[in-house]
Each structure stands twice: as C-alpha cells, then as structure tokens.
Design goal:
Elements: E1 4-7, H1 23-34, E2 38-41, H2 50-53, E3 64-66, E4 71-74, E5 77-81, H3 86-96, E6 102-108, E7 111-116, H4 119-125, H5 127-130, E8 134-135, E9 145-152, H6 156-169, E10 173-179, E11 182-187, H7 192-203, E12 210-214, H8 220-225, E13 228-231, H9 237-242, E14 245-246, H10 254-263
Parallel strand pairs: 1-2, 1-12, 7-8, 12-13, 13-14
Antiparallel strand pairs: 3-4, 4-5, 6-7, 6-9, 9-11, 10-11
C-alpha cells in the first residue's frame, strides 16, 4: 500500500514558465490526502517559496522536502533543517576563482545573493534570480544561507564537466545538474534521497510505501533510491534511466492522473 507520494515541481507537476500548479493537480493531491495518502513536493526550491506555487493551499505542502533534501517538513514542522556556513563555501569560491563565467549564489530569506562571479552570467542561466540578486563583497557571516547554486556561462556539456570537477575537488559539498548552466550545491550526503529517508523514518514507513515523480538531474538520487519511481515524458536521460516507471507529460497533468490512480488503489500502473 502506498502511504506517501513525493514529486519534483518544475518540469514534473509545474510546466516551465507557469506560476502555479493547475486546479487539476490540486484536486488530485486532495484526493490522495482524503484517501489517507500523504503528498509532498520534493524540490530544489526552498520551502518558503512553496505557497504561491500551490495557491496557498497549505495542505498541499505541509509535508515537503526542500532545497534538495536539506529541509524536510512534516505537518508544517521542520524535522531536518541545514544551513551553509562561510567555512563550507570558501573552498568552492576559491575553486571557481580561475574559471571564467562562473559564480555562486546563495539564498537568505528567499532572496538571492551573489557571492562571486559576474551577474551577467547568472542573467544568462537564471534571469529570475539575477534581476533581484544582491551582490555581496564577502561571504555573509550568518546561519541564514539555506540554498546555494553555482551558475556558469555554458551549455549542458560544460555544466556537467564543471559539476564533475567540483565533486572531485571541493570537500564537504555535493553538486548536481538540474539544468544547463546551473548547479545545485548541497552539504555532503544531502540530496532528495536522504530527505526521503529522513521523512520515511519519521513516519515509520518503508521505501516500498513511497512513490516519487521527477524529471531532472537532481531527481536522479531519489529515482534510483525509491523502488516506485516515475519519470515524466521529456525528462533528462539520466532521470529516465534511473526511474522504474515512466508516465506522460507535465503539460498534460500526467502526474495528477497517476496520483488519482494511487489514491484509488490502482497502483502499480504501467506506461
């Protein structure tokens, strides 16, 4: 019996360019909740960014895994909450100092702060962040840095190459590729899979009782880790290869249909 559904957001249940999930998705989430199956987003975004994406429907994100496993929430309460420190980030900034077109952005209270690099490179890789980013002269001495990304002026090949280099050379941090010209940065050992383990342990359930949906490179750890894993159409090749199951497109609300099937006890399904 499935007791927990976790889904990536962007490209999985939220089409790129859209500001909120569809009413169809919200209805499916509530059908699952009404059937006693928990639902939660499992995302690289911070949990503080979730309310508008789900139309302020708190039930849809009361259970959530944010910032790629660095934040885990159950019934609106944090059970895992990690932060970046200047000591952890300084070796990363030093490593990037001789790589043109690269930089580091961190997020505090949901706002982006550029610690190093040319803001124009961030504009090319993630314009939404660049438009509001605050440029820092030094690494802030604070415990409020909840999310970190590396940005670069380069294609997917260059992004993967940089990711591999940083994973080899920077201790204490892990890196993955959610999209071209952009890297997620996590504390070593933290990812969506570790967040799921923490949540499952807290709920007293096994991974066989969990279903996960995803599409990106940062979804690979959870897709490979959870037996009932599903990649949506047009997912990255690595995500498709890691998933046990495959479903339709985010543009057709395919995951909403699958959530309803789970709520009605029609799992497993085969696509």
């Amino acid at each position: 019996m499935i007791k927990l559904i976790l889904s990536d957001i962007d490209g999985t249940i939220l089409p790129y360019g859209h500001k909120r999930v569809s009413d169809t998705m919200l209805d499916a989430i509530h059908e699952a909740l009404d059937a006693g199956v928990r639902f939660g987003p499992c995302t690289g975004r911070g949990v503080e960014w979730l309310p508008p994406l789900f139309c302020d429907d708190a039930a849809a994100y009361a259970t959530a895994i944010g910032t790629n496993g660095q934040s885990v929430y159950l019934d609106g309460q944090a059970i895992v909450e990690t932060r970046f420190t200047p000591e952890l980030l300084r070796p990363l900034i030093d490593e990037l100092s001789d790589i043109p077109g690269t930089g580091v952005a961190v997020f505090m209270d949901g706002a982006p702060h550029i610690l190093c690099g040319d803001p124009s490179s961030l504009l090319a890789s993630y314009a939404e962040y660049a438009k509001t980013a605050i440029i820092e002269k030094t690494i802030p001495d604070t415990n409020k840095m909840t999310k970190c990304n590396v940005f670069l002026d380069g294609d997917m090949s260059a992004t993967v190459e940089l990711c591999n280099r940083l994973n080899e050379r920077v201790a204490g941090l892990d890196f993955d590729v959610p999209s071209p010209s952009f890297l997620n940065v996590m504390l070593e050992g933290r990812n969506k899979a570790s967040g799921i383990d923490a949540l499952a342990a807290h709920l007293g359930i096994t991974l066989d009782e969990v279903v996960v949906f995803g599409d990106g490179g940062n979804d690979v750890p959870m897709l490979a880790h959870v037996p009932n894993s599903v990649a949506v159409a047009d997912a990255m090749p690595e995500a498709i290869a890691a998933a046990r199951w495959h479903t339709g497109s985010v543009n057709d609300d395919a995951v909403a249909d699958d959530i309803r099937a789970i709520a009605r006890g029609e799992w497993p399904f085969v696509h």
